[in-house]
């Protein structure tokens, strides 16, 4: 789902599985996973299969009136590959995803280091603020942000005018693609930083103070300690968090869709998710929509491989 | 000494500024929710809700459409939570207490599936629901949500189930309890925190979800709360947006979730990167 998977305690260790050599229970685990299998195959497996098949079919005007869609082989894919608009959307999505994820991890990381350096009360204040922001349902958060950047009475324009920025009065930030994406990126960074900052902070608290003190005694300054001791130790957390941000920032349908509602420019601001939505529900072109969906799934799986492998290692 | 004190003050200030920046949009929502539209439409913003009232909140909450959306959200969410917990619990038992052929593939499939974005599936899910006549049906949306949360819920519960030693159960059996009784009396109570955590996870996912709901709940009277909020904003924008009302609507959607989230957040975040943190 959109906000991704945000919770999971793993304090419990993977336990010792029972000896599987009791014949009576051999079939039990298979029975236990039947409900999950049935559910996942019918609600996810079937749509994926349908999508693969449909991506080879052609949907046009005739199909909207009920004619069965003919198979056209790789035509949808060929059309997509040669469609400059798709490439625009793909490149735009990837650039948006990488920039937003990098900014998120940079700010989150800096905040984690900061939390480690300040006194307890200041840290707790920051943590509570982050948790409150994190807890905001995405649609509610988008609504507030749209109010803040509103061109007529929004707080942003008021503040900019106060700061002496010419032309901020009545400027609509959502009307131009570039400022639209800057706004989108700022909002998504705001939404994602809490998870990143708190995760990296959790990683930092594992770095032993003795090692740091020893390094300080040996004359390493703050920056050196950060680079040579802290960074290598928290590298695993950093890479996982970065990867999750990349995967999640590829699926920013809700945020982009709601900003498009408010701004009105759709074609210039489509990312992969909103493009599929437009193709499928707007134009009824299920063939092309399926082909783009397959592309999204492929990209996600490619990005997830490393993460999934690292989780599998936990499953002893 | 002096230099480090200055540095410390600077860092503390920075932390407070950042805390302010992250909490501010939430504060701004609450503040605006209490203010009448006349005040919000004036040229200078009002930063404190003095002279505000509960009028916006009351008028939004007593509007019939809010109650309708709340009912649908409750039905969908509760169905999802109950179904996901039951199905995932069985799955978690299977993978944490047994080694069986195909177990590794099952776990791998779960982990891959939980990464799949709704954006890559929703067109197909829309077609499926439409051919089954389940568009605009709470049960249809609940099935899709359950499937979306079950993989991660199994993964999450697996840790809890494995955390209860099987030996404990076996000891109870040696003491004369049947396997079922041993499970119900010994293992199940110890699993309660895990079940609660998973239920909260499923609840938050289903309650906040927007993308899939947008696609399969096409009619106005079958909107969930997030869809209702979007519709409310659009309806308000078609006149001249009444931001006081819109923020009141956002507040009604957000505040219960924020409170809920803060209560249970103890276990948040560490899980996703748990292995990495432990090194």
Outline the structure in words.
The complex is a heterodimer of chains A (316) and B (279). With 316 residues, chain A is mostly helical. Chain A has a domain at 107-269: MetI-like fold (Orthogonal Bundle). Helix content of chain A is 71%, strand content 0%. In chain A, helix 8 runs antiparallel to helix 11 (253-263). Chain B has helices at residues 2-34, 37-40, 55-62, 64-97, 103-113, 122-131, 138-163, 166-174, 179-208, 211-216, 225-238, 243-264, 270-278. Chain B has 279 residues and is mostly helical. Helix content of chain B is 77%, strand content 0%. Chain B has one domain: MetI-like (MetI-like fold, Orthogonal Bundle), CATH 1.10.3720.10. Classes of the chains: A mainly alpha (316), B mainly alpha (279). At the A-B interface, helix 1, helix 4, helix 5, helix 6 and helix 8 of A face helix 1, helix 4, helix 5, helix 6 and helix 7 of B.
Itemize the secondary structure elements and their pairings.
The complex is a heterodimer of chains A (316) and B (279).
Chain A: H1 28-54, H2 61-64, H3 75-81, H4 84-117, H5 120-135, H6 138-148, H7 155-162, H8 177-204, H9 209-217, H10 222-249, H11 253-263, H12 272-282, H13 286-314
Helix pairs in contact in A: 1-13, 4-8, 4-10, 5-8, 6-11, 8-10, 8-11, 9-10, 10-13, 12-13
Chain B: H1 2-34, H2 37-40, H3 55-62, H4 64-97, H5 103-113, H6 122-131, H7 138-163, H8 166-174, H9 179-208, H10 211-216, H11 225-238, H12 243-264, H13 270-278
Helix pairs in contact in B: 1-12, 3-12, 4-7, 4-9, 5-7, 7-9, 8-9, 11-12
């Amino acid at each position: 789902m959109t906000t991704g998977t945000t919770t999971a305690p793993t304090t419990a260790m993977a336990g010792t599985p029972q000896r599987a050599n009791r014949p009576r229970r051999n079939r039990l685990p298979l029975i236990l996973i039947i409900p999950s299998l049935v559910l996942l195959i019918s609600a996810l497996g079937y749509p994926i299969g349908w999508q693969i098949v449909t991506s080879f079919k052609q949907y046009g005007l005739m199909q909207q009136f009920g004619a069965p869609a003919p198979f056209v082989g790789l035509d949808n894919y060929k059309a997509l590959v040669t469609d400059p608009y798709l490439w625009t959307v793909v490149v735009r999505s990837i650039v948006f995803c990488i920039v937003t994820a990098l900014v998120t991890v940079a700010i989150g990381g800096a905040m984690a280091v900061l939390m480690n350096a300040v006194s307890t009360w200041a840290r707790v204040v920051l943590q509570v603020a982050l948790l409150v922001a994190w807890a905001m349902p995405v649609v509610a958060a988008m609504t507030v942000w749209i109010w803040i950047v509103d061109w007529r009475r929004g707080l942003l324009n008021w503040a900019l005018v106060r700061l002496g920025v010419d032309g901020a009065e009545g400027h609509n930030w959502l009307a131009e693609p570039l400022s639209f994406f800057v706004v989108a990126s700022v909002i998504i960074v705001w939404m994602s930083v809490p998870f990143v900052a708190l995760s990296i902070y959790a990683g930092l608290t594992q770095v032993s103070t003795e090692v740091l003190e020893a390094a300080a005694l040996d004359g390493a300054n703050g920056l050196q300690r950060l680079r040579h001791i802290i960074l290598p130790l928290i590298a695993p957390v950093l890479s996982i968090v970065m990867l999750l941000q990349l995967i999640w920032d590829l699926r920013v349908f809700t945020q982009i869709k709601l900003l498009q509602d408010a701004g009105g420019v759709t074609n210039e601001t489509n990312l992969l998710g909103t493009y599929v939505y437009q193709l499928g529900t707007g134009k009824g072109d299920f063939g092309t929509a399926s082909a783009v969906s397959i592309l999204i799934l492929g990209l996600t799986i490619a990005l997830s491989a490393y993460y999934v492998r690292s989780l599998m290692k936990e499953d002893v | 000494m002096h230099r480090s004190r200055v540095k410390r003050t600077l860092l503390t200030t920075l932390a407070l500024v950042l805390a302010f920046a992250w909490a501010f949009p939430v504060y701004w929502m609450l503040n605006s929710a209490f203010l009448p539209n006349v005040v919000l439409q004036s040229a200078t913003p009002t930063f404190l809700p003095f002279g505000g009232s509960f009028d916006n909140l009351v008028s939004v909450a007593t509007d019939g459409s809010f109650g309708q959306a709340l009912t649908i959200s409750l039905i969908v969410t509760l169905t999802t939570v109950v179904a996901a917990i039951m199905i995932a619990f069985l799955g978690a038992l299977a993978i944490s207490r047994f080694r069986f052929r195909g177990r590794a593939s099952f776990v791998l499939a779960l982990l891959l599936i939980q990464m799949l974005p709704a954006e890559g599936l929703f067109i197909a899910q829309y077609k499926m629901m439409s051919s089954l006549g389940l568009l605009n049906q709470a049960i249809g949306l609940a099935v899709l949500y359950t499937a979306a949360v079950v993989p991660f819920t199994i993964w999450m519960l697996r840790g809890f189930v494995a955390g209860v030693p099987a030996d404990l159960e076996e000891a109870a059996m040696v003491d004369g309890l049947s396997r079922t009784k041993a499970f119900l009396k010994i293992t199940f109570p110890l699993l309660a925190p895990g079940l609660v955590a998973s239920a909260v996870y499923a609840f938050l996912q289903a309650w906040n979800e927007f993308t899939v709901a947008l696609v399969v709940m096409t009619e106005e009277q079958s909107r969930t709360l997030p869809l209702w909020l979007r519709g409310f904003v659009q309806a308000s924008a078609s006149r001249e947006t009444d931001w006081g009302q819109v923020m009141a609507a956002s507040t009604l959607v957000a505040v219960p979730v924020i409170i809920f989230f803060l209560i249970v957040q103890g276990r948040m975040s560490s899980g996703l990167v748990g292995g990495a943190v432990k090194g």
